[in-house]
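Risk mitigation, structural track. In case the binding assays with adenosine-5'-triphosphate fail to produce interpretable data, a predicted complex structure has been prepared as a fallback.
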Amino acid sequence: MATAIDTFNSHLLKAFPDPVILLNRSREVVFANQAALEVLDAQYDGRDLALSFRVPDVLAAADAVINGEALREVDVSLSVPVPRNLKIRIVRFVDPAAEKDGAVALMVFQDISSETLAEQMRQDFVANVSHELRSPIASLIGIIETLQGPAKDDPEARERFLSIMGDESQRMARMIDDLLSLSRVETSERLRPQEQVNVIDLLEMTRELLVGRAEERKMELEFDFAADIPALAGDRDELMEVFQNLIDNAIKYGREATAVNIQVKIAENIGENEGRHIAIAIKNEGDGIAADHIPRLTERFYRIDKGRSRKLGGTGLGLAIVKHIVSHHRGQLSIDSTVGEGATFTVYLPL
Ligand SMILES: Nc1ncnc2c1ncn2[C@@H]1O[C@H](COP(=O)(O)OP(=O)(O)OP(=O)(O)O)[C@@H](O)[C@H]1O
Ligand SMILES: [Mg+2]
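Fallback model:
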């Protein structure tokens, strides 16, 4: 007769959020909870595990436990129905009552996909930062050696080298500022911005900051603002950073002697986000961006042409920051481009 504790145990197994499977001496599935149905093929009941879960390492581990080992752990990556990484623990039963029902091994699955992903991202990030800082530092070291040795008494070379040293150190400083700014936005991402900000004012301020750079490239900044754009709840500094990054990119990667167009209007439902939004579209003429690059542009350090972007002083962090700030504002960033014609970056901010 089932005791209260048996009933509790069987409910616990059923309700357990991770997959749990019991195997008998012949490696047949004698119990699988609801969560396990997602990893097993249909028709698993009472059949050899190999018929519903074909992962050789796991089957070998199950055999080892059935044949007397106390515990085996196996990490597996599955690609269907969705890619994920699982840690599977297989434990031998020592409970005679359970063995009477035929169960000798308990398999528990733990989904470690997000930990694996976070670890991978952390490693990539550290590798990227080190790599990006190494090249300016290597060039500084090289120059210092040259100035101490062969170019010691050459005032002309000294001038040239000092100017390169200036550029390289500024690039490093900018990169560190960008990294700090990224981590600041990441920490504040959960708190909703509270200030009332007027995006038109911010765009006017951005214009003043960047008009000189546009003139250097004989480019014009055209503004096209709808009347009566209301204020929205936002973070002034963060939104300034978004507009500066996007307009700076439009100038940097636009064709010389063309116009950059900045349009602000009201847009209704954007994708899954219902309600009214302010849409700020920044459009340039230029080479544009091939479709396969578009989804990757907001990754940290991602640049289409590393050499060109470096020459222009870029670190590849600008759009990563933009994306975080926009999502902090519960908004959306959309990127459209036709190769050979130009690109449009549109920020949608909910009202
Ligand atoms: N308007 C644009 N037209 C074409 N390519 C663009 C445009 N904006 C961005 N890109 C591409 O996207 C890449 C990433 O942009 P992002 O702003 O993140 O970095 P960056 O401009 O190289 O450096 P940073 O902004 O950190 O100074 C750029 O290197 C460039 O290749
Ligand atoms: Mg940029």
